[in-house]
Amino acid sequence: MDLDVAVIGAGIAGLAAAHELARAGREVRVFEAADHVGGRMATRHESGFAIDTGAEQVSTRGYPNTWELLRRLGVEDVPKIGRQLGVWRDGRVRRGLAHPLGLVTGAGLPVRARLDFARATRGLGALDTARPEASRAGRATVAEFCAPHHRDVLEYLCQPVVSGFFGWRPERSAAAPFLALLDAIGPATAWRTYAGGMDVAARALAAPLDVTPSFPVREVLAGPGYARITGPGGEFRVRAVVLAVPAPTARALYVNPPLHERRFLDACSFTPMVKAHFMLDHRPEPDVYLLAVPRSESPSVSVVLFDHLKHPDRAPAGRGLVTVIANPLVALAMLEAPDDEVVSALAAEAERFVPGLRAAVTGSVVHRFRHGLPEATPRALALRGEFASGLGGVVDYAGDWVSLSPYSEAAVRSGRAAAARVHAVSPDTGNRRQHA
After folding, report:
1. d(CA 217, CA 224)
2. pLDDT per position as a tens digit, 11-26
3. Which residue ranges does the chain devote to CATH 3.50.50.60?
4. 359: exposed, middle or buried (Cβ count in 10 Å: 0-12, 13-18, 19+)
5. 307-335 exposure pattern, b = at least 16 Cβ within 10 A, e = fewer
6. Pairing of strands 49-52, 43-46
7. In sequence order, what are the residues at sequence separation of 6 or more whose Cβ sits closer than 8 angstroms to the Cβ of residue 117?
8. What burial letters (b/e) apply to 16-55, b meaning 16+ CB within 10 Å?
9. For strand 395-397 and strand 234-243, is the pairing parallel, antiparallel, or unpaired?
């Protein structure tokens, strides 16, 4: 063999897998197509600004694997954000989204809608982000789940949340993973962010590992007791591969997956994510640090985020950093649009929510993820259990899509689980180790 274990992808899932395997004494090499680590948890530093291109926060609730890793890595500076979220409705901000205050103020919801949502979520039983298909919510889409209830449950709560945070269209994505996430991560009062940028954990994991950046793997082929990976430097024979890339990428790379894996990979679609980051000459001080915008209120903007309020190190003193996330309905078209067109369109629309935005901009950055977050369609949800029960071959997988739970904890959890499965196979015989 040329290598013991190859991990394809240096996002948080791949790095977590490599970290666990290295701790267990395995020789691991991580291959990453980009020139940096972090994947969808990367941070770009420019002109004194720290721009989180992907994930924005973690929570003290619902992230046990993440916090265990952070303690092991000695990452302690993860302060609370301490700011509220809001929803835009009828020309103004309604505070209290994902916050206990929302129970009183409604966060833009009338009393009838609040009561309907409480009734809808009562009696669902256990909600598990690791097994969302087991929820009593079944395989209904978000729109179908909301349909029997007050129209504002969908329009001013569920749709702004799933579109803004996951890039989902509620008519396509399943309710069970969404409800499981709401239950797991808790209120916004528990949300935190890393000092120095959201890639702090990824960089800490990568530091002691053998990571090869700018290495786009072209093909993975499984053989009897080995796998072959092909890239710019030729071919490598390896004992095991962990594909820690989005499902569509894994499907394109992996030549011969088993049938039950192929069915799930084919069904596991991703939604695109487009973000425009605006560096400002002053520091806006709104009542909220994140504003969710319903699609009934804007055709092109889903979220406006005031990064300088999320953490003071995201912008120089006296300056502001505002991120605008495109509505899923326009994000696909923006993937191929020139940066200046994206900036112009999103800044013009965001002016409604941040008056004076365009005049204050001193610079901008556009970031696109073609594979932003797993879409969690009912079709994929129906196939997930069979896929998960058969994992453990020469080629394994890691990523939030493995459990159809679009948050970084699911990526970390899947990376650690993949490492355990790989290590359970003896590197000498290819047989599964026997544990007492």
Report:
1. 21
2. 999 999 999 999 999 9
3. 3-40+199-267+376-423
4. exposed
5. bbbbbebbbeeebbbbbbbbbbebbeebe
6. antiparallel
7. 109, 149, 153, 157
8. bbbbbbbeeebebbbbbbeebbbbbbbbbeeeebbbbbbb
9. parallel
Strands in 146-202 per DSSP E: 191-192
> How many Cβ atoms from other residues are within 10 Å of residue 90's Cβ?
7
| Separation of alpha carbons 261 and 276, rounded Å | 35
Domain 3-40+199-267+376-423 part of CATH 3.10.450.710: no
* pTM to 2 decimal places: 0.95
Question: How many angstroms separate the CA atoms of 191 and 195, rounded?
Answer: 13
Which residue's entry shows tokens 């239950």?
183
The b/e string for 128-167 (b: 16+ C-beta within 10 A; e otherwise) is: bbbbbbebebebebbbbbbeebbebbbbbbbbbbbbbbbb
Radius of gyration over alpha carbons of the chain, in Å?
22
Contact 181, 174 (CB under 8 A): no
Short-list 191, 183, 206, CA closest to 127: 183
Point out the least confidently predicted range of 134-143, 359-368, 413-422: 134-143
Between 175-185 and 159-166, two packed helices, what is the crossing angle to 10 degrees? 80
**Mean pLDDT within 380-405:** 96
CB 60, CB 192: distance < 8 Å: yes
End-to-end CA distance of the chain: 29
SS3 18: helix
